[in-house]
Queue: 3 jobs
Job 1
Amino acid sequence: MRGLYIGRFQPFHNGHKAVAEYIAEEADELIVGIGSPQISHEPLHPFTAGERILMITQSLADLKIPYYVLPVTDVYRNAIWVSHVISMVPKFDVVYSSNPQVIRLFEEAGIEVHSPPMYDRDRLSGTAIRELMKYGGNWEELIPKEAAEVIRSIGGIRRIQQISQSDE
Amino acid sequence: MRGLYIGRFQPFHNGHKAVAEYIAEEADELIVGIGSPQISHEPLHPFTAGERILMITQSLADLKIPYYVLPVTDVYRNAIWVSHVISMVPKFDVVYSSNPQVIRLFEEAGIEVHSPPMYDRDRLSGTAIRELMKYGGNWEELIPKEAAEVIRSIGGIRRIQQISQSDE
Amino acid sequence: MRGLYIGRFQPFHNGHKAVAEYIAEEADELIVGIGSPQISHEPLHPFTAGERILMITQSLADLKIPYYVLPVTDVYRNAIWVSHVISMVPKFDVVYSSNPQVIRLFEEAGIEVHSPPMYDRDRLSGTAIRELMKYGGNWEELIPKEAAEVIRSIGGIRRIQQISQSDE
Amino acid sequence: MRGLYIGRFQPFHNGHKAVAEYIAEEADELIVGIGSPQISHEPLHPFTAGERILMITQSLADLKIPYYVLPVTDVYRNAIWVSHVISMVPKFDVVYSSNPQVIRLFEEAGIEVHSPPMYDRDRLSGTAIRELMKYGGNWEELIPKEAAEVIRSIGGIRRIQQISQSDE
Amino acid sequence: MRGLYIGRFQPFHNGHKAVAEYIAEEADELIVGIGSPQISHEPLHPFTAGERILMITQSLADLKIPYYVLPVTDVYRNAIWVSHVISMVPKFDVVYSSNPQVIRLFEEAGIEVHSPPMYDRDRLSGTAIRELMKYGGNWEELIPKEAAEVIRSIGGIRRIQQISQSDE
Amino acid sequence: MRGLYIGRFQPFHNGHKAVAEYIAEEADELIVGIGSPQISHEPLHPFTAGERILMITQSLADLKIPYYVLPVTDVYRNAIWVSHVISMVPKFDVVYSSNPQVIRLFEEAGIEVHSPPMYDRDRLSGTAIRELMKYGGNWEELIPKEAAEVIRSIGGIRRIQQISQSDE
């Protein structure tokens, strides 16, 4: 059974990794789909698709099952999004998502959806971690060390701080 | 004389129907143009173009004049929107609109615009009706029974409730 | 049962009308979907969506079943085209098409496709009729008189002749 | 040395003109790049690209160095925006900008960025001037007289007032 | 009176310059609109918009009237193209074109079109000049020396030769 | 050193696999970039991105170095294509390509390009293999057995034959 797990992963953090490991208990293969891959260098979307692919691939190196890490470009039209996803990634059997809109769209298309548990949701959220990055807090303990290394290698903290400044 | 009446119709309600009947008193034919037809499955835009076309066509079955119900895809550029509309629907003589931006754009293009009266604006608004749908209120008395039947047949209330949930 | 019949209708001719009448024998309602509605003023695509909607609606005035005439904007991606069509027109049960690619796409989506008979294919083809228009031949006997009237009212023959000239 | 100065110029005002004159002290040629040229007739973006090109060209008639006034269409993807700009305007050596995101993007591409001084920022801002236009204040003293003349010739004040109305 | 002259200018050659000088005899100002500005590095479209802007601006330095050199992005829809052009350049009174489709579109919009004479059409054509560039012929005598200098400064001949190779 | 190898892979064949093995001799990691991933169900582009990702990933299972298989969506603008690629895949050091246009674009961006040898080019070409598929020839010996298995599992031969039919 091949599972699909979609997120924006700005950045990929320990909560995402825990979900991947949870899926690895019940699926034979995992597809990690990166949403909004075309957006970067914005306060809510600091990292490029290429940077996120690297973070995720390296952070999952020890996952027990084979996995694909793939961008899923936005199409901005919900009614065709499911068939877009289907065409852009290998065939999958189950979607893992907690997003009500994503759940609804796959269910209308007759595709099975599982909602994985969330881990330490208050601390392990992209929003919270980007704030720590912006203000110099301890973000490194909240994300896999391989992802942290990618962020350091591209000057990611400096980027997030600079693009978050106001120009007024 | 052929009149053009543009709206999003999320959903088509009794106020929209009253405007169509008002236009039918002075025009020979009516074009109902559906704005943002490509957007659906969002809290502010729950229904697809196809679903809205069905709602409107069936709700206007007794209109006294012939009518066309047509999608008018967004182009996201005001300066070309009027010529886009002109190319996508049959030739029209008068636009019916209360939206100041729509009025301005057609007037700059030298096209006559009439502002139809509004009917019970507080209750008969898309926003108010979608809230009733979301929280289980009495939305059915505010829209034509044919439109209500379309919404029921697609599980529309369940859709609107599901996509309006937060995933936090 | 609601049938969907898709074509470009540049212009709508007697062969198209015969197919619509054939479908009216077995379906309860007909959707006529206009492909490439956004293209016009080109030698192979002379008429706008609005002009074609008018031609078709008026030519089918005596059809025995109710019908919808609707644009179906190109999406330039076959893998999502079927779900695009589904979202943009009322729900349909059977697709009528003789185009192998269209047939394949609907069949992969599990939708029933019928191939209607073709009528006098050599003379009743868009290509042949546009050539007659361009060189002053007798095109009027090949299309419904209502469609011919629309073409005359917009100066369509002059348009097709002018845009077909070379600028060398 | 050729400098690039990018802004939206809704409208072009005395602060923009002062920056252009500042650049003229250190550069040999100036490119004025107009951002979001495709957007117009909106409260925050009232003027078309053509109208802004005219305002700027005429307001800079006495600038001491040669200049180009060019639209730079939005691409909605930061990671490719710098190469888009490079392809759409003549080769430049220095970018003049106070916008942190613009600065970051050009710096990641290895291009020199200077931040020009701002002049009377509270009064000389697009937001403040559009408010004056909307409510009948004294906007004319804040923009070059040539730009004011362009705005008058197109009925710009009436446009901004009309599109800013609510339709409720 | 302000005239608009649209072309692709791949590259800008002596025939184009002669047309500009012809227009300068009857117009007060000239807008040179660059078509397909977003296309480059292809055998039929070797130069970027920025490179063409530079070629044209410098080649027309001695023109007797003021001129604007501006990109006009393709919209791929003839029915809205005229209003797109109108919104993207300063207001114009007359269009200069020999292209039958361009003439038709502006005429349908009620805009005056003049067809300028052509100069030595066999030799002074983009196609012929690009062939000379590709095979090492004497292209330099066919284009203004300022345009030739721009092409040399960017390695344009090497580019056109390289992208024209087959990879078989 | 990380190498990037871009192709359309319609389908992935033994020549492509030989190039990947050649690169594996000199690079530490390989990115396989799939061009035109959004196109499918056309005679020249029969397979979806998802199907091609599966073919390639499984065919390279024994490659000696780690690899990424990633779609690279078309942007239809050569001048920004290189920065698009850079943003969509992990950082790379060398591009492997025999396409003169691709070589030129990366060289203008200052990126190293190697041209790998071609293997049995007459037989190992996408065009030749799609012809064999269409006419029932022996295509299976020309592509990796894992890729052949993917094609069989999706009914790929029937698809290619059906979409290649004429509808005349």
Job 2
Amino acid sequence: MTQAVGLPTHPRDVRELIRRRDFTGITAGVSPGYVQANLAILPKDLAFDFLLFCQRNPKPCPIIEVIEAGKIEPSQTAPGADIRTDLPKYRVYRYGELEAEIEDISDYWSDDLVSFLIGCSYSFENAMLDAGIPLRHHEQGSNVSMFITNIDCVPAGMFAGPMVVSMRPVHHSKIVKAVQVTSRFPNTHGAPVHIGEPHAIGVDDPTQPHLGDALAFKDGELPVFWACGVTPQAVAMESKPPLMITHSPGHMFITDLRDEDVAVL
Amino acid sequence: MTQAVGLPTHPRDVRELIRRRDFTGITAGVSPGYVQANLAILPKDLAFDFLLFCQRNPKPCPIIEVIEAGKIEPSQTAPGADIRTDLPKYRVYRYGELEAEIEDISDYWSDDLVSFLIGCSYSFENAMLDAGIPLRHHEQGSNVSMFITNIDCVPAGMFAGPMVVSMRPVHHSKIVKAVQVTSRFPNTHGAPVHIGEPHAIGVDDPTQPHLGDALAFKDGELPVFWACGVTPQAVAMESKPPLMITHSPGHMFITDLRDEDVAVL
């Protein structure tokens, strides 16, 4: 992945630009090689059940870091950062309804809020590209295809719902390699959840996604499905919490972790 | 590892014996190939911080399953089991002081308690034996050596403290293999935390353990250190919770998971 034009490379410097609102765009391609994260902020009384939901469903909900109530710094993955200002765009939901899309959530902040940073697919997509596996949604300049499956997540408290998956067409000659390289990244969704019979997971037509964009298949390509970070947000939203704040789609939090820091083996 | 004499193989059948108090011994060698777990039971108001502590310190505190307040069944890893009766021996602590060692905790149970099952080293020890790496504490018929290191766990809420590690002497010709095979088991402590310079982690003399038994070294063997499941219990105990229930040392909970179920790659 090439570096976004005109931006510094190190996440600390990029976050500084974001905090000053000198950069408010999507973060795809920004600080290549560093781990980016989805954000979900919830009131403290829901935090145990949500953390437990993530623990029970590590493929769609891999926790990168949790910031306790009363704190605003992701001290393990981005020392010095401020979770209220250092994402380029946020969404604020009240009882499951979108209330605002803003570049700073300081006005919504209270010491009652717990912030969850959840792994995203960029890390394993870099590994796929490095392994010579092309990504159709990059080639098309579109979003990845996503499907709501018939796979139930393991519930926790009020949190329950189906697993959402992303789909990438992979040539049959590259499927084994795709499993191998993504298996190294269990903290960013990891190995595929399905190969071979889309109907079995509730996907009738891999060319007709439920979310995101349709992707063209080439000869010899099969649909390969990975757990998707949309899952925890969708599940949390279903519970209609009094307040929930997330990143705006594509506007992720950029940590100081390198992709290799979250790889196994 | 050979099967304990006279016991059935499947964990479900062993738990049935334990529940009837027909088996109250240590579980080493029982149901070989199945995952065993450490137990820590805490009041609900400490559960979020303890779960977060485990999430932040996955090497010493790998969560196998959490049973919410009000429930007694580890439904994901041992359907039908009862956490109050299906371990051969428990310890009950009040404000950090041992109050009782008993075979059934039903009298102490309340709907306010959350149960944590935490991975133990048996799974990766089986993998080491399969890989031809001898285990000195098995040969000696003793406990493994344990040390309280100078490595601070990442704190969460009231939970903080040093990492406890176990030590196994490994011949230099087998050290690479020992790293490889244990790396496959991140949910049961995984790869070593240290090789090569014990002083660097606060271990002055590898033959003088802080806990457990001393192990003899043979020519060409080095001390290799793994994160130890004693860590979360020691840390929780330090916080002197009003009630904490654990397994009695060596008397683990036997799940229905096979070792391979918790392996990566």
Job 3
Amino acid sequence: MIYFDSDYMAGAHPMVLERLCQTNQEQTTGYGTDAYTARATELIREACGTPDARVRFLVGGTQTNATVIDGVLSRHEGVLSAESGHINVHESGAIEATGHKVLVLPSYQGKVRAADVRDFIREFYSDDTYEHMVAPGMLYISFPTEYGTVYSLDELEELSSVCHEAGIPLFIDGARLGYGLAAEGSDVTLKDIARLADVFYIGGTKVGALFGEAVVITNPDLLKNFMPLVKQHGALLAKGRLLGVQFEALFTDGLYEKISRDTVRRAIRLKEIFNSAGYPSAVDSPTNQQFFTLPNTLIDRLREEASFEMWGPRGETESTVRFVTGWSTTDEEIEKLNNLLA
Amino acid sequence: MIYFDSDYMAGAHPMVLERLCQTNQEQTTGYGTDAYTARATELIREACGTPDARVRFLVGGTQTNATVIDGVLSRHEGVLSAESGHINVHESGAIEATGHKVLVLPSYQGKVRAADVRDFIREFYSDDTYEHMVAPGMLYISFPTEYGTVYSLDELEELSSVCHEAGIPLFIDGARLGYGLAAEGSDVTLKDIARLADVFYIGGTKVGALFGEAVVITNPDLLKNFMPLVKQHGALLAKGRLLGVQFEALFTDGLYEKISRDTVRRAIRLKEIFNSAGYPSAVDSPTNQQFFTLPNTLIDRLREEASFEMWGPRGETESTVRFVTGWSTTDEEIEKLNNLLA
Amino acid sequence: MIYFDSDYMAGAHPMVLERLCQTNQEQTTGYGTDAYTARATELIREACGTPDARVRFLVGGTQTNATVIDGVLSRHEGVLSAESGHINVHESGAIEATGHKVLVLPSYQGKVRAADVRDFIREFYSDDTYEHMVAPGMLYISFPTEYGTVYSLDELEELSSVCHEAGIPLFIDGARLGYGLAAEGSDVTLKDIARLADVFYIGGTKVGALFGEAVVITNPDLLKNFMPLVKQHGALLAKGRLLGVQFEALFTDGLYEKISRDTVRRAIRLKEIFNSAGYPSAVDSPTNQQFFTLPNTLIDRLREEASFEMWGPRGETESTVRFVTGWSTTDEEIEKLNNLLA
Amino acid sequence: MIYFDSDYMAGAHPMVLERLCQTNQEQTTGYGTDAYTARATELIREACGTPDARVRFLVGGTQTNATVIDGVLSRHEGVLSAESGHINVHESGAIEATGHKVLVLPSYQGKVRAADVRDFIREFYSDDTYEHMVAPGMLYISFPTEYGTVYSLDELEELSSVCHEAGIPLFIDGARLGYGLAAEGSDVTLKDIARLADVFYIGGTKVGALFGEAVVITNPDLLKNFMPLVKQHGALLAKGRLLGVQFEALFTDGLYEKISRDTVRRAIRLKEIFNSAGYPSAVDSPTNQQFFTLPNTLIDRLREEASFEMWGPRGETESTVRFVTGWSTTDEEIEKLNNLLA
């Protein structure tokens, strides 16, 4: 079997695991107060070009989204998000559980448009009864999106401008950030993300780590008491250095970028294979998630040797599927898929 | 330096880490739906003597406490706990953040008394205004407690009886469960815990794992929709098999018990060393946490070569300190401490 | 000036106020434990044909919605509602503040369709990842809706069936219930509402009381600990008998029905006046809220002598407006409007 | 029967009710945007000597406490309160339901001591693990307290200083504020309260109104988005002018003070009656709540003609009881009690 279900099916990239093994017997203080975490923080600040940013390491994406959003919003505010946003769909109500509404914007293959954000805010405050409604307190976007799509630098600049004109922070969910930055044709860099967002995170779980998300807070006015909130959300790892060790490895010698680049390259090759075989993409994704609408007969045949996810319900004669590459995907696996299709 | 700060200063027990390395390249489905998690579940059911118990794996203690308590309580209920209980002191308000009050009982070196629980409940319902107060909806105890003390089997039986007569579940925080079961002179077994509690957890983070807590739900009426709650609390690990692999290792060939036994044995030796040197215990703990009130001069001298925690504020001439052993503590380290004291 | 802004612009119906004055000096116990509240409870049970229903009196609509929904739902569940539902739009996030997501259904002039409810639930549970999403735990509808429309008896029967087949309760927001039951052409009775809903409320604030909503719980398995929840939500009035006195008055000699009938009759006359004058209804409402799309010039002219609300933003040349009648609206005021239009 | 159960057993003071009747037929806009509310606001600002204070009217005490505290605290903070504080005991967990812990201080007959507040804060921040604990984010006191006691001006000055040195706001629950200001021997004025607190409220429910609490926000940095929070908490009355009308009446010609003064005078006479009859006070209260420990035989005899509350459980031979006077208590009722005792 070859696996394309997701980018969190294997363990850690060997170089990450190696560092965990090398440091396993060491004794350090807990909760991220160790030297590894300090070094990972420095490496990330450098990579982001933000020497003063606060960097904190959490375990997973949902808890990171909930902790950040809970900390940024005032009690009467909600978070703007694409209807397809992870926080609106696949987090079992984690945001609402902290007391906040997800305010829904139209989704264009996972992306929101600056004009829609601007309109939402203008219409909100021009409504006489706005104090009876949930105020937009921040904007959440994912980069890349749940559809694998990415924002261009212009689009990000505009979203950032709209937010800052309205006085609300921009939060970027970077659970797959590496793949977004390595996207085919992308003109966005990590430094751009750090410059345009008020807070964002660099996903480790899906980009080579066992687990871990590095939250980067570039806006000094935000999340001033983040650590107790992290603890309150059950997101403070006792052996916190495990996060530091992994992110130190990922941000040493460009490993995070290399994993991202290789993984995206394989996904693009996979896309070409399907497209060449006559199966156009259901979404034009330049990252490591690829979507195709395939005949059910082909799906059933492929499934004998390949594992992948249905994307939505099975149709009468054809259905949409998702193929995802990860750090552990090999060129051989991609070519094996090519043979299966032939 | 030798380290006695806590039991979460080193990584994983070598046999646990080895299994993580051996399985690292494998591809499995996420979120705990893998075969390792299934096997760990079976091993834990067996060890507990509860073939029908539901077993779920979470990442850390605070999130486990918050998720379980949030799922067990009705909205108008609170959780009974010793004043010294971890949920009441050291979780940054994680329980209150889910909307529930911690109802405080007197703490006797970390333990609650069945009579106090019974009295609380009786007085509550005999108050005409009880609907204006927070109803006791469950009992939380830790085993061992935050002071390293343990309940006897009789005490646990009585607490369980009091709870069940009152119709409220008993929840045992077992973040250090292994050390409680291995406590000097303890007559409590894992099967007793499983029989007497409605839900409890087997701590991995502090007993040889990198991280992880195994929640065991023995009362079939409780937590019927636990998984979405785990997700909502940000406690569902994407690479869930990491928890399965670790607990499978811990519950194979008695590793969990062995780690616990060895760790407690070293703590008891450490206690003897201090006691023999004329420093009586501040708390008579039979587990891996040991407390002493030492002259500040001695504390300062020890600190040059040993690391350990203050327990409360520094006094004028003497202060209370805590020494903790863990899986990585060696006999040599204990004896080095002996030499330091001499 | 004549006022058509809303149905909560005047105080109480004179007969309600009279009873408040008559009983003002009496001393009774608080929090709804008085004899007036007991009598109002009995009168409402009788009117509903549900001798065993629990009846509780709260102060206002938003707090009633939040308290009921918070008490009905489990932590992992959300509430289904039309997109236009009051809880989704105009309660400042009161539902989310209790930790629950509002799950949005299409709105057909304020109404939801049973087929949409059925589809939502079926699609939810047929999704492999449903434990990562918010489970539909109840259905909220308003009767009449925010657009003044009402469900037919058949529609209510079908919604009730769909809910009960799916095992979720049906909750009816009856902030304007009287007007819905008195709607032109309606075949729904209070007994039908009580038979088909699991919990609903009879609005007082907008139907002749100073304030007050009577919650009727017909499903004995729901909201078993409602009183402490009411207190927790700050919805327990100290001088609770004020609610009992008012609802006793409203449910004596058919006053509630009479107010509703007269108020709707005047609204229908108002509709005829506009329609006859060549201004068709924007929504075909058979209750006390009427909507018209009028030329801005007419709006501006009417505003010199009549007060009413804009419904949405002002358009280029015409805009939609809302006219509402209430217990204090007189036939003379309606005819004055007729003259204004002429 | 004569009634001393509480100060919320009768309706409104006749002059308050009269104004409600006089204005009943008027049409005003809702939610507190009316002229009565504006005038009440001005009268209260004047009485407080705070021309810039924001004044908002809510319905009841529990909802006011929960809304204010929820709005003042950051997510990681809790509220300091005497153990006996209303928010800690008798609000069914309303504060915790908003996600915040009540941090308990020792209660001295209902009062907290500035030294205890100072110690709590100092010890908190001197603990290395303070980020794992709930930070004190504000101080809640009641004036008068639940025991009828009051703070002296010096005590209030000191509490205010301690809070402001620590950078946390002082919130005064004034559900019975009038009786505290009218307390025998009190040197505290309403202007003092307004000067020393950051936010407080003037209770109407227990001091002559049907219901209503006037929140006065003197610290301009606090509760900047209070109205949506009030709505979110279900505390925004649709017919908001009912609150304005009542507080306008209470703050016209010193009615609020007069009610308070007369009520306290009668309570002090009641105290003298009991004391003279050989029954000393259980608490030395200078306000409208009086506590005595009486023989059970006397309690049973009095109960035949007087109604009052037990304060705590019934003892073997004697028990503590509470007698409360209110605006409707008459001198005749007090003297009738005298006769009963004789």
